[in-house]
Amino acid sequence: MTGSSFAIDVPDSLLRRARGGEAAAFEQVYRRFERPVYTLGLRLLGDPEEAMDMLQDAMLKVCRRIGEFRGESPFWGWLRQIALNEALMRLRRRAPLDFVAEVPEPQHDDDAALPSRAADGAALERALAQLPDVTRSVLWLYHAEGFTHEEIAAQMGRTVSFSKSQLMRGIRRLRVLLDVDVEVMAHV
């Protein structure tokens, strides 16, 4: 499996102490990974409260299973997989969403200045929040986490074609929501 494009270093001594059951060491591990695990949950689930619940449940599982970590791969990859599984389990409990909901066409303001990068980021956040959970999750897993369609399909208990279709539908919807000119994008 590919992984996210960043890693979080954890001293081996800290992991040894946490695996040995030292509460203070596990608290340090929790503090290092609290934000990235929460962010992953928020990206996949789209709900801050549910992302916080997912963070707590995932970290409890990590606490119980930290002895299983053998150090053969980066710790963040191991922890991230636990968090990802927890988020996807929560998505599966929801009513299945196999389609992208219709989104109203954006209002045009031709006289508006181009937004700054921060405004672009905020617009993307708002647009992603309008996508169905499953579609947003496929987009995030593919583009941000670097998973292949085969990996996404396996993680979500779906087919490869489902992953591909959700990705394409999501991209088309984002273009509408962000008012991206497809012809301009083709030349970038």
From TrEMBL:
Q: Which processes are annotated in GO (biological process)?
A: DNA-templated transcription initiation
* Keyword Nucleotide-binding in record: no
Respond yes or no to whether keyword Nucleus is given for this record.
Answer: no
- Which residue ranges does the record assign to the RNA polymerase sigma factor 70 region 4 type domain? 123-174
MF terms in GO: DNA binding; sigma factor activity
* SUPFAM superfamilies named in the record: Sigma2 domain of RNA polymerase sigma factors, Sigma3 and sigma4 domains of RNA polymerase sigma factors
Domain named RNA polymerase sigma-70 region: which ranges? Answer: 30-95
* Cited InterPro entries: RNA_pol_sigma-70-like, RNA_pol_sigma-70_dom, RNA_pol_sigma70_r2, RNA_pol_sigma70_r4_t2, RNA_pol_sigma_r2, RNA_pol_sigma_r3/r4-like, WH-like_DNA-bd_sf
**Which superkingdom?**
Bacteria
List UniProt keywords, sorted A-Z. Answer: Sigma factor, Transcription, Transcription regulation
Family from the record:
Belongs to the sigma-70 factor family. ECF subfamily.
Concerning PANTHER family, the annotation shows: RNA POLYMERASE ECF-TYPE SIGMA FACTO, RNA POLYMERASE SIGMA-70 FACTOR ECF SUBFAMILY
Report the protein name in the record. Answer: RNA polymerase sigma-70 factor (ECF subfamily)
Report the source organism.
Chiayiivirga flava
